[in-house]
Automatic annotation (TrEMBL):
Residues covered by region (Disordered): 67-93
Protein name: Lipopolysaccharide assembly protein A domain-containing protein
Transmembrane portions of the chain: 6-28, 40-58
Keywords: Membrane, Transmembrane, Transmembrane helix
Length: 93
C-alpha cells in the first residue's frame, strides 16, 4: 500500500475512535438558541465540513489562458523544395 493510503486509514480510524468516545449529550450555545446535542454529532459535522473546505481550498486551480480561444488550426508546413530559389535548385542538381 502507498503511504498516503495508510495515512488516510489511520486518520479515519482515529477520528472514528474519537467520535465514539464522545457520545454524551451536552448543551451547545448556538448564537440565539441553546440545544442539547450529542458531541458525536457536532464533532462529526465539524470534521465533515473541515474536509469539504480543505478539498475546496486545496483543489487544483483551473487556468484560463489567452491562447485557448485564439488558436487557429495548424497549417501544413510548406514544401521545402518549393521555397528554394531556382539558383539553389540548379546548384543542388
Amino acid at each position: 500500500m502507498r503511504t498516503k493510503t495508510i495515512f488516510i486509514i489511520i486518520f479515519t480510524v482515529l477520528i472514528t475512535i474519537f467520535l465514539m468516545i464522545n457520545t454524551d449529550v451536552v448543551e451547545f450555545n448556538f448564537i440565539f438558541v441553546k440545544k442539547d446535542i450529542s458531541k458525536l454529532l457536532v464533532v462529526g459535522v465539524c470534521t465533515f465540513i473541515g474536509f469539504i473546505l480543505g478539498y475546496w481550498v486545496g483543489r487544483p486551480k483551473v487556468t484560463v489562458s489567452s491562447y485557448d480561444h485564439k488558436e487557429s488550426p495548424q497549417l501544413k508546413p510548406e514544401d521545402p523544395k518549393k521555397s528554394i530559389s531556382d539558383a539553389d535548385r540548379d546548384y543542388i542538381s
